[in-house]
Amino acid sequence: MHHYQQNTEEVLSSLNTTGDGLTSSEVKKRQEEKGFNELEQKNRQSTLSLFLESFKDPMVIVLLIVAVVQVLLGETVESIIIFTVLVINSILSVVQTRKAEDSLASLRNMAAPTATVIRNNSTQSIPARELVVGDIIVLEAGNNIPADGRLLEAESLQVEEGALTGESVPSDKNAETISEDTGLADRLNMVYSGTLVTYGRAKYVVTGIGSETEMGKVAKLIQNATSKQTPLQRKLEVFSKKLGFVILGLSILIFGIQAARIFLGGTQDIQIPLLNAFMFAVAVAVAAIPEALQSIVTIVLSVGTNKMAKRHAIIRKLPAVETLGSTSVICTDKTGTLTQNKMTVVDTFLAGQKEKAYASQPDQWSFDENRLMQIAVLANDSSINEKGESSGDPTEIALIDHSNKQGLPFSTLRSTYPRIAELPFDSTRKLMSTLHEIDGEQMILTKGGPDVLFKRCSKILIDGNVEELTETYLKQLHDKNEHFSDQAMRVLAFAYKPITKSDLDLDDENDLIFVGLLAMIDPPREEVYAAIKEAAEAGIRTIMITGDHKTTARAIARDLNIFTEGDIALTGQELDALSEEELMEKLEHITVYARVTPENKIRIVEAWQNKDQITAMTGDGVNDAPALKQADIGVAMGSGTDVSKDAAAMILTDDNFVSIVSAVSVGRNVYSNIKKAIAYLFSGNLGAVTAIIAALLMNWVNPFTALQLLFINLVNDSIPAIALGMEPGEPHIMKQKPRDPNEGIFSGQTLQSVIFRGLTIGVAVIISQYIGLGYSNEISVAMAFTTLILARTLQVFPARSNSQTVFQAGFFTNKYVVGAFAVCMMLYAITILPIVRPIFDIPAEFGLEHWGIAAGLALATTAILEIRKLVFPSKLAD
Question: Which listed residue (135, 148, 172, 333) is catalytic?
């Protein structure tokens, strides 16, 4: 039996303690057995091991081999460049990993530093870390709760548990025994570590400390939740392995062919030919590997983060930008994300008034309207200052805000009718009453839960007249209350009666005159309706997951068109009752989850992931952190806890669902641009490899040096690739379905474009080298290098789109591409300066005639690539 199902005597007995608290000796014994009240800390992987792990990539291994060989051959410049690139990429990887480990640190920081405890039959303040199970804790308003426990006494206790349960308003607590099995949010006689007392006083016995608390369970879930690789990361990892092995095999094959030629040729001095053959093989490896790929992807993702920041989305983990583009399911919280997180009065009921109340100015209000507003504002402890900052219970704030909106400032009513006496709200009575003098007559004004207040009323106010509360009227009140409740509204009832006393007691809250009802709701954000529609058109499912009651959640979801005909709404307990097979069978139809636990949220996310859906999860509380980490992309609210922010990949500064959909649009564009940049890099590399293999087969001199290829790969090509990351989004990007997470990097027309572009560039370089050989080997190398660098740079214009020519897309719609081309031309110009030529093996006799031939061939490749789009426009559209 759970502690909340036991009465207070049974709980104390089961924990072997008393209301006078534990003795010091017993506390020491329990600390030795169970340890201290703190969360366990998982051993972190060392920074050095994380750094070394980044060198396991096959492409990185090939580059390391190349760099070591360059050192042995005395080519130190090339080796330093390669080592520098690899170290930078490794440092970036370590930094990103360390950021992901911050959530548990924030969770540990949420623990209360001290606690007021009864020990040895006396009250004392101790560090919360020293608490043990069985300790008796005293709570007051403003206290952070230091450990889980069962309430022994509670006086008007309200606890803010939203961070743990998802509840949007403080929970009323009591010490009464609960017989049935209930969810976490409905255990009203329990309090939990990490939550906050907002009102009242209490005493409770500790039932769980450290990792045994609900907060501790969340910590374990965070530790066990697996951080997901993004689709792009997975594809790049697989592709890198394959490419690494292919390049290594190709280099070995080329060296083998060259070595065989040397030995079969019968040359006596084979040392220099073998060295040349080896350099040929090294050149292939350098040409084929896009050394700057990881850095360019990182930079393009960073550009995406800047765009998202302008749309209220802060990216904590760069790969999340790309993940957003493939998101197919958004599991979103209700309160504050879909709704305004502000209780608002939306309907009024007065027994004698058929039309909507408060349609006119205050001086034209009926007596009934005036009296209802007086009670709502005066029997109320909340306030709103001149800056618009509110304090108090959210439902009470809604009442005074309603008065302000109707043209009657709440402060005017309170200054006109000051409070004489009061009966504070009590969670047992569910009533609040205050005493005022109104129009020369003292009156008790009472507000509370409708079912409770109906029983306290014997009369009813109708059009300014007081009449008996008959069964007919009572049925009307119950029907109206039920009608409001069915629409997920929070309803308060209001009553009054004249009184001659100058003080109040509980007996005064009887024989009241019923006035009316006010119905409140946390309304949806207006802009969310369009955002959900846009998400649906983009093939993205929206799932509501909330800590609120199912009726409330379903009503809001239906209004927002998340919950439609045939859909299912489940509570956390109903979800627990489903087997994995049943859940997977019904998953597509479940659009609303209410009263959920952290375990429920992880299960929901995992279920969608098991269907190969890229899942985003929003949240703001501690209870959301495990699911935020488990999701493909966790989205935390800017107003949420540090724990949720640390576990998330993205933070919304405006807590708005609209910003998620906007970020998805940016994410899709970022992924498209990354593919364009990757295609650009590999097209150029394929052109270089094609030329090298052709030279090998025709027994020509190696067309490029390793330094030339490194210069093109790391310097020249990087700038245009980054510029492609600035390409504006396609106009219909949010009309397409999310891409398949199993889709390869070179899916669609991308691979065809890479092969066609690469071979076209390769053929141009081969022709250039062939012409150059008519002059000399040195001129042929210079012409091949010039043709390759110019063709690869010009290729940035066709690379902007697979289907549109540069003129169709708009030559200046991406000014960064034009700027990148200009910079690359200047960089190339440096390589042919007289003082620099020897470094790049460009002979002094390389002149305008040779350059003109190379440039003409490069321009021809660009023309061919653009003409192809005009001839085959539909086939090339991705």
Answer: 333
